[in-house]
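Technical annex B. To support the medicinal chemistry partners, we prepared a structural model of the target in complex with calcium ion, based solely on the information shown next.
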Amino acid sequence: MRFCTNVAGLHTHCCSSRPEGEFPGAVHPRKRRSVYARRLRLFSGRKLTSLQAEARRRLDSLPSVIAEVSGILLELQTADLNIRTKSNDKDLVTRADLESETRLRSFVERNFPGDHVMGEEGGGSLSGAGFTWVIDPVDGTINYAHGLPLFAISIGLTLDGTIAGGLVHMPALSTTYTAVKSMGAYCGQRKISVSPTTNPSQALVVTGFPYDRSDKIEYLLGGVRSVLQNCRGIRRTGSAAVDLCWLADGKFDAHYEMNLSPWDTCAGELIVREAGGLVTTFAGRDHELIDKSLLATNGHLHDAMLKILEGMQ
Ligand code: IPD
Ligand code: CA
Ligand code: CA
C-alpha cells in the first residue's frame, strides 16, 4: 500500500522529460515502497482512520486508468471530436468527455463494486451510502475543444457527505494533484501549500463564468470590476479544477465562481483545504458541494475577498 496516486506509475506520452507534478512513470517497486515508507513515517504516531485508509486505497488504484484516459484525451483532441451542445451553445460535450467518463465508471464498477458514481455526463447522486466517486471526465471542455492544454480529469471521493479524497490530473501538462483528508495536498510527490499573500493589492485572483449567464452579465461584471479595483490581477483558465489546484499550489491567491457543480469542485476543494486554504460560499459559510457560490482563498485573504465580492452575495 502506498500513500497516494502520485507515487504510482503514470506516464502520458506527450512529454519526453517529466515535470515534477507528474506521477513518476515506471517507478521500480522497491523505490515505490521507500517513497511510501517515507510518507508513512511522516504520519507515524497518527493512526490512519478507516476513512483515510479507504480513500487512499481508492486513489492508489487510479494511475493506470488515469494514464489510459489521459492518452485517449490527448489523442482525440486532434481528431474528430463530435462536439455537441447541452444546456446552451456555450455548454459543450465531446466524444472525449463521454469516452473518459465511460472508462472511469467501468473502472469503479470493476474495482469497487459497492461504491457509487456521480459524473457530469452520466448523472448519479451524492446521497448513496458508502463512497461516491464524483467525476468530471474533462473539466475545461471549451479549452479542450479549442485545442488548448488547460483541461483536467477531476475525481473526488465523498463518504457520508465528507470529501475524503481528490485527484486532479492535467493530461497535457502531465501534472497531478492529490489530497486525502487531513493528510495534506501534493503535486506529484511535492507537498504543496497556499500562498502567504496577505494584502489583496498583491493578490492574483482567478474566476470563471457560468454557461447560463445572459441575465447575470451586470452581476458578473460587478465582481470583475471590484477585483480589478482591489487586486493585482484577474485570470480565467477555463477549468475550475485547474483554478483550485493552482490556488492550492500558491500560484493564485483566490478563486471565486458562481454555479459550479459538485464534479467541478469536489477534488479541488479538498486539495485547497489540505494545502491550508479556505473554501466558503460568498456569504462566508463553509462551502458544501451543492452550494452555488464558491470563494476559495489562501485563508489570509478570505475576509478581504469576502468584502471585495460583497456585491455578489
Ligand atoms: C467548466 C469549467 C469552467 C467553469 C464552468 C464549468 P466543464 O466545466 O470548470 O472553468 O467556469 O462553470 O462548468 O463544462 O468544462 O466541465
Ligand atoms: Ca467541469
Ligand atoms: Ca466536464
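Notes passed to the chemistry partners:
Residues 136, 139, 240, 263-264 surround calcium ion (ligand 2) (CB under 6 Å).
Residues 89 and 201 are 36 Å apart (CA to CA).
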